[in-house]
Amino acid sequence: MLDPSNPSPKYSQLKEHLKELIRDGELSPGEKLPSENDLARRFKLSRHTVRQALGELENEGFIYREQGRGTFCRQNPKTVRPNIAVLTTYISDYIFPAIIKGIEEVFSSEGYNLILASTNNDPVKEAQCLENLISQDIVALIVEPTQSAQPSSNLDYFHKLETRGIPYVMIHACYPELDPAYLVMDDERGGYLATQYLLQLGHRRIAGIFKSDDMQGVQRRQGFLAALAEYQLLPNPNWIGSYKTGQIHSYPFEFSRSLLTQDPRPTAIVCYNDQIALEVLEAIRHAGLKVPQDISLIGYDDSLLASASEVKLTTFKHPKAEMGRQAARFVIDMLNGRIAKPSLTYPPELIIRSSCRTL
């Protein structure tokens, strides 16, 4: 029986009691535990309370469940490190190493094993990764949606996670059909502030180039248009570039080259991110022009690329490692039942360097 004078929640008391039985060897590795109904009757608890206790024991690696067979004591529970998966669009490029480092710091200190995978922003690859990760006995998932501005063909995998009680947190964007825990940037506000900054410097002929198959690009474009509208400026459709993932290595440069041949040409360009800003910078150089003397340029994410060349980009801060750490903390809070669907939106923060000038 549980101690009625103990102020701890009943599920927590049951969890600790079962842990003690496992550690003392009264429940042997591989031994089947009593059913939820049996435990509820024995300890005079609701099935919900029993289920919560068993869920935490499973997350902590003390037990495992087999469909149709029951719940079993895990082999060597003290040394088991439960698996948490991280699925991002990319792993080794741009801002992603810093995000993953932040995630790893928290999970490693909490005793979890990290499984990494990337989709290359390809929905087919995303489906393959999700199927593989779900089969690996993961207890939680951090995921960056693939082509988040497009209808997803992979929602069934997330429904499967929900059915199995496996928490997941989305970063950078969310599929609109789902209601997940998430961490995102306020991208529309960022696009607005980037454009407003250039307008305040006196620019009126402002172009923009944005990614169209990720929600971040769609929202930054919306902010760009909102700032122009606030200044009663009609957007020039020929000055707004739109590209998809497969065009990343060709479209930005070619669009910028075409843009710079127009008369009059833009005096400033808002870029989807720092990576695109460097492609645009190369096109500006190719045209015999200079930043910021001839064209002002603004990026996004404050990546290492922002200060990699002699032109130091004005850009927007991305929390990177802190976002990773916070995503990991959200997962642990969800695993421990402290919160169901946490969320956080980071406000944009402009970092002014030398790529923009006053007209």
From TrEMBL:
SUPFAM superfamilies the UniProt entry points to: Periplasmic binding protein-like I, Winged helix' DNA-binding domain
Any one GO MF annotation of this record: DNA-binding transcription factor activity
Protein origin, superkingdom: Bacteria
Keyword Transport tagged: no
Domain HTH gntR-type: 8-76
Keyword terms: DNA-binding, Transcription, Transcription regulation
CDD domains named in the record: PBP1_AraR, WHTH_GntR
Name of the molecule in the record: GntR family transcriptional regulator of arabinose operon
Organism: Hydrogenispora ethanolica
